[in-house]
Design goal:
The protein has 15 helices and 5 strands. It has 2 domains: 138 residues, DNAb Helicase, Chain A; 170 residues, P-loop containing nucleotide triphosphate hydrolases (Rossmann fold). α1 runs parallel beside α3, α11 crosses α12 and α12 packs across α13. The strands form 2 sheets. The chain has a 3-stranded parallel β-sheet with strand order 4-3-5, covered by helices on one side. The protein has a two-stranded antiparallel sheet with strand order 1-2. Helix content is 56%, strand content 6%. The protein is mainly alpha-helical. It starts with 7 loop residues before the first helix and ends with a helix. The longest helix has 23 residues.
């Protein structure tokens, strides 16, 4: 984790000034910042009480109100009061406008993340070393990694209605499945962006994997990165079915020279006409893959190819490791995790 380019005293003073006076930083104060993160205990303590004030009154304290809070906290301790007065003087002397805004925001996030990571690990070191339990630490670190000044308030429906309707009507926001009947009932296909989990349900041996094979074949011909996760068939069998789909040849004929040449010809056409297309087929043993394992694999694939998969096909969901004992609850859990 990189460190802030500014000295710790200066960046902490800037953080104190901005978080105590500027509404832009409210989300940072409410959702993330802890008083233990600061080298200056007074910065952490005062920000803590400003947060409590905001939670109670839904606004930042005025300068006079903040003075009253400080007087109440430190009136009986002259050394603490002098330290706070020195902090306030340093804050007054700082002009945040002298810095580029993007640079300053980046420095604030960088500093907070750096100190937060250190304090989180150190505060959980006993659980990690003695109890071999890092769950709490990992959860806190995950939250810290998501720290940002951006705060999405969602869709302002009345204000943004024109944009919404334009996005809904834009065919570019949909991925055609290649099946006219499915595209018709899904308003043009699957959502290209956002959360979209489509489940194909059918009895055993009626063609669920066959449908997924067809979908994969159709998607790679749309210049897409397709990832197939198979927990039943081998990678080569899936590749064999994709090849048969591309050439309209029987799967048992692919060993013949003519059919092999057809497959190579069709794959070469995809390379030329869909240069961004990619098909990755990965096999896992049944009941060996959890949603967390899948996320790790997707992250590795994303780093390797410098792009995220556009479509992920899983064959099939009930062969993944559930998080709960009850099947229905476990299935719901897997569905939600995959959707996210």
């Amino acid at each position: 984790m990189s460190k802030s380019l500014l000295p710790s005293e200066k960046i902490e003073t800037i953080i104190f000034k901005l978080l105590s006076t500027h509404p832009k930083y409210i989300n940072l104060l409410l959702e993330y910042v802890k008083k233990e993160w600061f080298e200056s205990k007074k910065v952490g303590e005062i920000l803590h009480y400003i947060r409590l004030y905001y939670v109670k009154y839904y606004k930042l304290p005025s300068e006079k109100t903040l003075d009253l809070i400080i007087d109440k906290l430190y009136a009986t301790n002259e050394a603490d009061m002098n330290e706070v007065k020195a902090l306030k003087e340093r804050a007054k002397e700082i002009d945040a406008n002298e810095f580029d805004l993007e640079f300053l925001d980046g420095e604030i996030i960088t500093y907070l993340k750096s100190t937060a990571y250190y304090n989180t690990v150190m505060s959980n070191i006993e659980d990690i070393e003695q109890k071999h339990n890092c769950t709490s630490c990992c959860e806190e670190l995950t939250k810290i990694s998501s720290m940002t000044l951006e705060y999405d308030l969602g869709l302002d429906y009345i204000v943004d209605i024109d944009g919404l309707l334009e996005r809904l009507a834009n065919p570019a926001n949909r991925l055609s499945t290649g099946f006219d009947s499915i595209d018709e009932v899904t308003n043009g296909g699957l959502l290209r962006d956002g959360k979209c989990l489509a489940i194909i349900q059918a009895a055993t041996h009626v063609g669920k994997s066959l449908v997924l094979t067809n979908l994969a074949t159709n998607f790679i011909q749309q210049d897409l990165f397709v990832l197939i996760i198979t927990l039943e068939m081998s990678e080569d069998v899936y590749g064999q079915r994709i090849s048969a789909n591309l050439t309209n040849c029987g799967v048992n004929l692919l060993g013949l020279e003519k059919e092999r040449s057809m497959v190579k010809y069709d794959v070469e056409n995809i390379r030329k006409n869909c240069p961004n297309s990619k098909l990755l087929i990965k096999e896992f043993a049944p009941q060996s893959l959890s949603c967390n394992n899948l996320k790790v694999f997707i992250d590795k694939a994303t780093m390797t190819y410098n792009r995220k998969p556009d479509v992920i096909l899983i064959d099939y969901l009930t062969l993944m490791i559930p998080n709960g004992k009850e099947f229905a609850i476990a299935l719901k859990s897997i569905n939600m995790l995959l959707k996210n």
